[in-house]
Amino acid sequence: MAEVTVTAEREYKVRITGDWRGDLSPWASKRSRVAIVFPATMRDLIPRIEFNGVEVVELEIPDGEFGKSPSVLQYLWNELGKNGFTRSDLIVAIGGGTVTDIAGFLAASWLRGIDWIAIPTTLAGMVDASVGGKTGINSPFGKNLIGAFHSPISVIIDPSWLKTLSDRDFAAGLAEVIKCGFIDENQILELLGSRSLQSIREDSSRVLNLIEQAVTTKAKVVSLDFKESELREILNYGHTFGHAIEKVSQYSIRHGEAVSIGMVFVAELAAAHGLISSELVEQHRQVLKGVGLPISLGAIDGANNWDALYSAMALDKKSRGNSIRLVALSEIGNCTRIEDVSEADLKSAYEKVLL
Ligand code: GLY
């Protein structure tokens, strides 16, 4: 069992444990009401949860990015209202990043903020979405445009959930782990080496180590800059272009897959600006491709549309005024920003990830 402390809005622990129900019980037993928010696809995987004398309300929501919508949030608010949720009650999110995002925002917005616990069930959720208190839903104008910073009181990572993931979903989670390997000094890139996805999955102690390293990087960054005044932006390495790909392809690919291409894009841009070497760009391609992640727009439906990608990037949260601002590397473990970048430079990096 490992434990990582986060100090952002409040102090809380990310516990990497083998028993999520046992870990949840002491938190839930003290409340009058507990809402469990989970995606429809997990109904059969989540046993009926009971705590002595506690009213447990099960709230099933649609899966994926489309479930992170104003109408689903309205449904959740109504359920809390009908069941009389008060400030001393608890919301528990069990699911991937989309579930912890919307359930966290539900907790942030209900009565101006009630307690919530994240139990991430995907690798992406474990190493990124559930840690750091970013909560929110999507808007027709872009991903995560409506939201709040609201830290959970605990994050319970039970690696046994990982067995439920397809290789594709596991690889998509590794994209966020690899991102942490590029932006911070840790052992992630060595732990991955040139190992294949299968050999990583089969080595559970390596997987635990990777999760702990990525969570430690995330905890360090959000503890220093909870509300993303600047440092926290580094966690969005590869995300400006990644979010644009997701939007333009109508969320038809995994977030981690889009971030993978986004990291290669911004590495190409950084190399063109003389910030990093072409060898480091190649290292991005090797490590990402090595675990089965896409490194080009290739066959992604609808994504080969520069005008649409450019407009989507302009609305990214890292942009300021009318200028696009991207997190880039100056070396492994050190980040910088590329600001006021011309459309011609961006387009030339896009052309390098087309095929
Ligand atoms: N996923 C990026 C962040 O939490 O800031």
Going by CATH, the architecture of the largest domain would be Up-down Bundle
How much of the sequence lies in strands comes to 15-25%
Mean pLDDT: 95
Give the CATH class of the largest domain: Mainly Alpha
- How many helices? 13
Number of domains: 2
Strand order of the largest sheet: 1-2-9-6-5-3-4
Instruction: List how many beta strands DSSP finds.
Output: 11
- Report Rg: 20 Å
Sketch the major β-sheet: 7 strands, mixed
CATH topology of the largest domain: Dehydroquinate synthase-like, alpha domain
Low-confidence stretches: none
- Shape designation: globular
Helix content: 40-55%
Helix-strand category? alpha/beta
Order of helices and strands: EEHEEHEHEHEEEHHHHHHHHEEH
Name the CATH superfamily classification of the largest domain: Dehydroquinate synthase-like - alpha domain
Structural commentary:
The chain has helices at 20-28, 70-82, 97-109, 123-129, 167-183, 188-192, 197-202, 204-224, 239-248, 255-272, 278-290, 306-314, 343-352, and strands spanning 2-8, 10-16, 33-39, 55-61, 90-95, 115-120, 134-139, 142-149, 154-157, 326-331, 334-338. The chain has 13 helices and 11 strands. The protein is globular, with a radius of gyration of 20 Å. The protein has 2 domains: 2-164, Rossmann fold, CATH 3.40.50.1970; 167-351, Dehydroquinate synthase-like - alpha domain (Dehydroquinate synthase-like, alpha domain). The chain starts with a strand and ends with a helix. The chain has 355 residues and is an alpha/beta fold. The protein has a 7-stranded mixed sheet with strand order 1-2-9-6-5-3-4, with helices on both faces. Strands 7-8 form a two-stranded antiparallel ribbon. A two-stranded antiparallel ribbon has the order 10-11.
